[in-house]
Amino acid sequence: MARLKPLPAVWLVSDARNDAALEHALVRLPRGSGFIFRHYHLSEGARRVRFAALARIARAGDHMVVLAGSRALARRWGADLAYGTDGDLVPVHSLREIGRVTQAAAVLLSPVFPTGSHPGGKPLGPLRFRLLAARAQVPVIALGGMNARSASRLGWPRWAGIDAFGARTNKDS
């Protein structure tokens, strides 16, 4: 499960809200992007089947495939990396969380901008995001309200989106 290529700049993150459109979104991703499969809402069997189907599409686009779960599970399922608090890609939301991550491929710092994933939540905004990101000991991937336009506005080299590639299926998201 060793990372064989550089960390992608652009990432698609899956969840229940964008499931129905993921095939479409994966083929729209720039070649060599990253795909983080979460799908916590599925049973283990259904989750494994869905992961395998989407991983095939992702690999056809030369995308890095990441599975939410333990590194051992990611290795068993054939993912490139694991996503989670003890994974290779670690979600963080505060300075305290950033400070805890010293051994990972990257952190996903969120939410940068308002997002349907955290309705009513207070986004970091560009300035606070940059201040927190500067404290990270590993590369930082911006998440939360991210798409090509907001990524350009932020001027950050790595970003991830849930709805950024036509994968939005719920108007509330």
Class per helix and strand makeup = alpha/beta
Number of domains: 1
How far the N terminus sits from the C terminus, by CA atoms, comes to 32 Å
Taking the sheet with the most strands, its summary is: 8 strands, parallel
Write the H/E string, N to C.
EHEHEHEEHEHEHE
* Main sheet: strand order: 4-3-2-1-8-7-6-5
Overall average residue pLDDT: 91
CATH superfamily: Aldolase class I
The CATH top-level class label: Alpha Beta
Strand coverage percent: 15-25%
Estimated helix fraction:
25-40%
Spans where pLDDT lies below 50 across 5 or more residues = 167-173
Structure description:
With 173 residues, this protein is an alpha/beta fold. The chain has a single domain, classed as TIM Barrel. Helix content is 31%, strand content 18%. It has 6 helices and 8 strands. The protein has an 8-stranded parallel beta sheet. Strand 2, helix 2 and strand 3 (64-68) form a beta-alpha-beta unit. The protein is globular and about 40 Å long. The termini are far apart. The model is unreliable at 167-173 (pLDDT under 50).
